[in-house]
Design a protein that fits this description.
about 30% helix
Length: about 160
């Protein structure tokens, strides 16, 4: 369990809160391109897994330039990760992650040769969170407005 004195543990505790991520890669012209992907798994070492099409732009971009950025958010927490991505062919893991929602994007199932995994090995991260969740955040924002004292959220940078 995270404590305010352990930024690494706080970041690891925040990761399961996120279902979707904006994954940013660099295209052939050197421009950043972000797209939403569904987080499939969050390992305690900071790895994130996504199901992607082998012929997708994200797969092509990471093949040419593996450095990526990942942004995740909820109502009371935000995380930014930097790391390196790779396409991973692991049919057993793909089957474990498979769901009806994934099937909507890939109707031929996990055995479809165009379906693969994207693994992002996060090397660093930064988080911002509101203490106590949504209700506490609203109370803190009101308190800040009434007292003139700055809002107190948590923020830290972590090497993974």
């Amino acid at each position: 369990m995270a404590t305010e004195n352990d930024p690494h543990a706080t970041l690891i505790d925040l990761l399961p809160k996120f279902r979707f991520a904006m994954v940013t890669t660099m295209n052939e012209e050197g421009a950043h391109v972000a797209r939403p992907l569904t987080v499939q798994d969050r390992e305690f070492d900071g790895d994130l897994w996504f199901i992607v099409g082998r012929d997708s732009s994200v797969a092509a971009h990471v093949a040419a330039q593996p450095a990526v950025g990942v942004a995740l958010s909820t109502n009371d927490a935000w995380v930014s990760l930097a790391g390196n991505a790779e396409v991973v062919d692991d049919l057993e893991r793909l089957r474990d992650y498979w769901s009806p929602a994934v099937e909507a994007w890939f109707p031929d199932g996990p055995e479809d040769p165009n379906v693969t995994l994207l693994k992002i090995d996060a090397t660093s991260g930064e988080y911002w969170s509101s203490p106590g969740g949504t209700v506490a955040s609203i109370i803190s924002l009101v308190k800040s407005k009434v007292t003139g004292e700055p809002y107190e959220g948590r923020n830290d940078t972590v090497d993974l």
